[in-house]
TrEMBL record:
Name the UniProt record assigns to this protein: Multicopper oxidase
Family: Belongs to the multicopper oxidase family.
Record-linked CDD domains: CuRO_2_CueO_FtsP, CuRO_3_CueO_FtsP
MF GO annotations: copper ion binding; oxidoreductase activity
Length: 512
């Protein structure tokens, strides 16, 4: 049987962000092309046969993004975004988290299965300016493209907008053994997809751009580069795509409808490669794709588009022929069994703008919304109650676990969501069934990953526990403590503080 080449974006067209009232279309860049920035690999401080030690520093800096004035940005071990971190599965990993920013932040490992709420780095794990903290963990999960980003409620969106996001590559022996492009920066390329608006003197102004349904800008910024090109020197290129935008959906395709093959989703390889000409990512989703430039000649150009706007140009140079076929089998999914007697857990994402809620409530850091025993697989039904027309796709993200997508409104999931994931776009009027099992006890957040929605309270948290053992007590943060700290750091009164999610709570008459 010949395998299909998929030619659609799978998601429901009436719910695309292009129909939003506040949609900001991308504009063709008016600045000269520049080489795509490839983040350096973060060097370990030291490494032994069993352990590896890193220091990750959140820092402020200036970045030459546009001609003229440099843009004030934040990053991890870099002025913007960050160095790429590599975590080998099985090694004991130690990370020193340093905060050199003028305000508190957290270090959230999006896609890593590490214990919550402290190592996970959500809102309960602030690192204050000038402080450093140490975390350590051992990963037991498949190779994947994950990422690190700030998650200090309710300022996650603004901190990510300033640049606090970088890729974290989980590596394992199985993935390394496959005939896939592996050479970082040569044929294995990270692509962090973001959009920004540049104000006077090329500066960001998050408050000016604020939209409770998600902040957008007209300029595509890829790995921190505007109008990038990449010099292709191999027949095959593996692109690790991350929707690192606060709100934007990326509908990606190449010039001449060049087909490409998706090999991995958020947190694992796909069982089998999926060939397609179009790919849509919702916020925080990842896809690894392999593009084959067979037949292209030196001097040719292949362009990656988002909708109808070019975002990266691939300039073809001479390459050695590489006609190795991609393996038909990439990964074995071992799905845990669900006890049919267990009830299906229901999660409802509702509203838009300031009205967004999860299960009819806004997030409260001090409230545990659900409990699930470690090791017990359960079905979770995630429903988006938005109307198809005028509604939006909400990307549902879970901390502390990888899930399988079982069905969409009772139908098969999309062909490219057959591996493990941590974020899934839910269409308006749709119920997506997930298979969820936690391996580690802790407190974990789950939320919409339109970051302004999460700051606006479209978030909840679950405590996972080991049956038969006493429930550990976790020190959970509260909004007042964080808000007072932000105000102090900014040298203003708490009453003068503006933060992204505040209006969403205030307009709904709810306390943060
Ligand atoms: Cu949302």
């Amino acid at each position: 049987m010949t395998k299909p080449i998929y030619t659609d974006y799978f998601f429901d067209e009436p719910a695309y962000n292009t129909h939003d009232g506040g949609y900001v279309p991308l504009e063709r860049p008016a600045v000269p092309a520049k080489p795509l920035a490839i983040p350096a690999l973060l060097k370990p401080d030291r490494e032994t046969a069993t352990d590896v030690y890193y220091t990750v520093t959140a820092q402020a800096g200036e970045t030459q993004i546009l001609p003229g004035a440099k843009t004030k940005t934040w990053g991890y071990n870099a002025s913007v975004l960050g160095q790429t971190i590599v975590f080998p599965v099985g090694k004991h990993i130690h990370v020193t988290l340093q905060n050199h920013l003028p305000e508190l932040t957290t270090f959230h490992w999006h896609g890593l299965i590490v214990s919550g709420p402290y190592v996970d780095g959500g809102c309960h794990a602030p690192v204050y300016p000038g402080e450093e903290k140490h975390i350590d963990f051992t990963l037991d999960q498949p190779a994947a493209t994950t990422w690190l980003h700030a998650h200090p409620c309710p300022s996650t969106a603004e901190q990510v907008w300033h640049g606090l996001a970088t890729m974290v590559l989980v590596t394992d022996a199985h993935s390394a053994s496959l005939p896939l492009p592996h050479e970082y920066g040569v044929d294995d390329i990270p692509l962090v997809l973001q959009d920004r608006r540049f104000h006077e003197d090329n500066q960001l102004d998050y408050h000016a751009d604020y939209d409770p349904d998600g902040v957008q800008g007209p300029t595509a910024v890829i790995n921190g580069t505007v109008n990038p090109y990449f010099d292709v020197t191999t027949q095959k290129l593996r692109l690790r795509l991350l929707d690192g935008a606060n709100r934007r959906e990326w509908r990606l395709h190449f010039s001449d409808d060049l087909p490409f093959t998706q090999i991995a989703g958020d947190t694992s390889l796909l069982p089998t490669p999926v060939t397609m000409t179009k790919l849509m990512l919702t916020c925080a989703e990842r896809a690894e794709i392999v593009v084959d430039f067979k037949g292209r000649q030196p001097g040719d150009k292949v362009t990656l588009f988002a909708d109808d706007v070019p975002i990266v140009e691939f300039r073809i140079h001479a390459f050695q022929p590489d006609n190795t076929a991609l393996p038909e089998h990439l990964f074995t999914v071992s799905a845990p069994t669900v006890d049919p007697a267990l009830p299906v857990r229901k999660v409802v994402m509702s509203g838009m703008d300031e009205q967004v809620m999860l299960d009819g409530k806004k997030f409260n850091m001090q409230r545990i919304d659900a409990k699930q025993p470690v090791g017990q697989a359960e079905y979770w039904d995630i429903t988006n109650t938005n109307e198809m027309h005028g509604g939006m796709v909400h990307p549902f993200h879970m901390h502390g676990t990888s899930f399988l997508v079982i069905s969409r409104n009772g139908h098969a999931p999309y062909p490219n969501e057959t591996g493990f994931k941590d974020t899934v776009g839910v269409n308006p009027g749709e119920t997506v069934r997930l298979l969820v099992k936690f391996d580690l006890p802790g407190v974990y957040m789950y939320h919409c990953h339109i970051i302004e929605h999460e700051d606006g309270g479209m978030m909840a948290q679950i405590q996972t526990y080991e049956p038969g053992k006493p429930l550990p007590k976790y020190k959970l943060m509260d909004m007042d403590t964080l808000m007072n700290a932000f105000a102090k750091e900014r040298g203003i009164k708490p009453s003068e503080l503006w933060m992204a999610g505040m209006e969403s709570y205030e307009k709904m008459g709810m306390k943060m």
